Amino acid sequence: MTVGGTEVKLLAFDMGKVFVDFQWEVVCKGFCERSAMAMEEFRVVLKYAATLGYEHGRITTEEFVAALNRKIGSQISLEEFLELWVVSYEENQQMAALLEALSKRLPLYVVSNTNEAHHSYLQRRFNVERHFKEKLYSYQIGSCKPEPEIYLEIMRRSGLPAEQCLFIDDLEQNVAAARELGMQVVRFVGIEDLKTELAIRKIEF
Q1: Which of 36, 54, 88, 192 has the most CB atoms around its CB within 10 Å?
Q2: How is domain 2-21+91-200 classified at the architecture level of CATH?
Q3: Structural class in CATH, domain 24-85
Q4: Structure pTM?
């Protein structure tokens, strides 16, 4: 399980667009239809929403919904929001099978920028945590990738040095931040490419 002479003793996986698939445009379309808002207008709302700290755990789901309603001048209920917010989310079955196999070989961590509503739905609907020894969610830790703190938590919890941890994420900025901290990294572009990268490191699955 080595690359460049360093053994991989832990695998840390991003969630969205790695083993959970979703179409963000479908989510946005639902909110636009509900609020009678053009997509361009709603993109402005999304930029505002990103400043509220929902994924950092600074506000609750109820507070997030109230802030959105004030911004767009609507009365979307919590129940309506939850339905719109999780539409199109599905577990990637091929990746689920790979994670199941890998979990028998090495400890797996999930490291995700997510929020209370998405996490709750995905766990309830798909039991996405079943493969993972540790779960690092941004809204619980108070840090989002590519901020260093969420990566450092991997090393704190595992007791392993960064170079023995392999981090897998679909976004280049998140991979780059992990690399800066000394972690081994793979940018996720698809399951076959990931299998190749694992094989290079002699990681069986």
Answers
A1: 54
A2: 3-Layer(aba) Sandwich (3.40)
A3: mainly alpha
A4: 0.94
